[in-house]
Write a structure and sequence with these properties.
This protein has three helices and 16 strands. It has helices at 29-36, 148-156, 209-214, and strands at residues 9-10, 15-16, 26-27, 43-50, 57-58, 62-67, 78-84, 90-91, 97-107, 117-128, 146-147, 162-175, 180-186, 197-202, 218-225, 235-243. Helices cover 9% and strands 40% of the residues. It is mainly β. The protein starts with 8 loop residues before the first strand and ends with a strand. It folds into two domains: 9-36 and 160-243, OB fold (Dihydrolipoamide Acetyltransferase, E2P) (Beta Barrel); 43-156, no CATH class.
Length: 247
């Protein structure tokens, strides 16, 4: 699925652009990570329908799923790891739920037919009933309920996008289990600093000698990826390649 390119102004990272092509923006490692982690550990409020197998169904205090369609067996876009359920035992697929929770992580599809999910924790049901909101910017972190599909599109819009990142090349880690090399980029030359970018290449691949000689101002390009091995505090780049200084 081709996802729209989203733009966000990251003043602290020195990035404020609405590019027509992702390659027009060269991110810093911290800048791309800030965009990727925009919602992480923050409280979000959404409007959604219970993603029930059969309707009516029962509330669950763990792994309760919600979606954008008021019908049984609709795709689940959000899962609440922990939910403080209301006193009512029964719920139907047509009941619009306003709930608040803390953004925990992105969850990749468990099969080819499944969708990515947003995992929330500390979920609390605020109200039941009403109409699905038609406005509200999903990038804004506030108490205004956001339509679950709008938030889902914003959260996963970056996945699969081609990006360029310029930073300090820290080094390579090779995994024998996956036969992949991960090249770490960070903001500065600090040895123990965070490594926000993982540049993945198939096989046991060294960085170009020109990169190893200087390490600073290393530019990589690839697609933002999400797997079950991804971490919320690192952006994984697949099909990654090093861009020469004149590239």
């Amino acid at each position: 699925m081709v996802r729209p390119i989203l733009s966000i102004c990251l003043a602290l990272a020195g990035i404020c652009a609405a590019p027509s092509h992702a390659q027009d923006t060269v991110y810093t490692p911290n800048g791309l990570l800030a965009r990727y982690m925009h919602w992480h550990d923050k409280q979000v409020t959404i409007a959604a329908y219970p993603a029930l197998f059969m309707s009516p169904g029962r509330w669950k205090d763990r792994q309760m799923e919600f979606g954008a369609k008021p019908e049984p067996q609709a795709p689940a876009l959000v899962v609440c790891d922990v939910l403080t359920a209301p006193n009512e035992n029964r719920i139907t697929s047509t009941d619009l739920i306003i709930l608040r929770g803390v953004f925990a992580r992105r969850v990749p599809p468990w099969s080819g037919d499944a969708l990515d999910q947003i995992a929330l924790t500390e979920c609390e049901v605020l109200s039941i009933g009403g109409a699905m909101p038609q406005d509200g910017d999903p990038w804004e972190i506030n108490d205004t309920p956001k339509a679950v599909d709008a938030l889902h599109d914003a959260v996963f819009g970056i996945i699969g996008q081609t990006v360029r990142v310029k930073g300090f090349y820290w080094g390579r880690t090779w995994s024998g289990a996956t036969d992949e090399s991960r090249h770490d980029l960070q903001e500065t030359a600090a040895f123990l600093g965070p490594k926000p970018i993982g540049c993945f290449q198939n096989g046991k691949v060294d960085a170009p000698q020109s990169v190893l000689d200087t390490r600073e101002n290393t530019v990589i390009e690839g697609e933002v990826a999400l797997t079950y091995h991804s971490r919320p505090d690192r952006v994984d780049i697949k099909n990654c390649r090093f861009i020469p200084p004149d590239g």
